[in-house]
Amino acid sequence: MNKCYLCGGKLERKNVNIARYWGKELIALNDVPALICQKCGERFFEAKISNKIDEKIKGVLENKKIIPKINIPVVQFS
């Protein structure tokens, strides 16, 4: 894939930081390989990367590995 599905812009490989909810847990992952649209900024993850994201999160939560934690403010929108 070398063109954005949304706008047709050129995609560039970059590592990004993401956050994903798994149940009620919010997990942050750093340096995740992604394809970023240079026109609209949309992020795309290849299937193997998406699977690895899931595996990484499951592994951390199932094994209760000690990982660094940060406090984040939670603000109610309405």
Provide an overview of this structure.
The structure is a single chain. By secondary structure, the protein is of the alpha+beta class. The protein has a domain at 11-63: Ubiquitin-like (UB roll), CATH 3.10.20. It contains 1 helix and 3 strands. The chain has a 3-stranded antiparallel β-sheet with strand order 1-2-3, covered by helices on one side. The longest helix is centred in the last third of the chain and has 17 residues, at 47-63. It starts with 10 loop residues before the first strand and ends in a 15-residue tail after the last helix. The mean pLDDT is 90.
Summarize the structure.
With 78 residues, the protein is α+β, with helices and mostly antiparallel strands.
* Helical residues, percent: 10-25%
CATH architecture of the domain at 11-63: Roll
pLDDT averaged residue by residue: 90
Overall geometry comes to: globular
CATH fold category name of the domain at 11-63: Ubiquitin-like (UB roll)
Distance between the termini: 39 Å
- Indicate the structural class: alpha+beta
Instruction: Return the string of H and E elements.
Output: EEEH
Number of strands: 3
Strand order of the largest sheet: 1-2-3
Low-confidence stretches: none
Strand content: 25-35%
CATH class category of the domain at 11-63: Alpha Beta
Radius of gyration: 15 Å
Major β-sheet annotation? 3 strands, antiparallel
So how many helices? 1
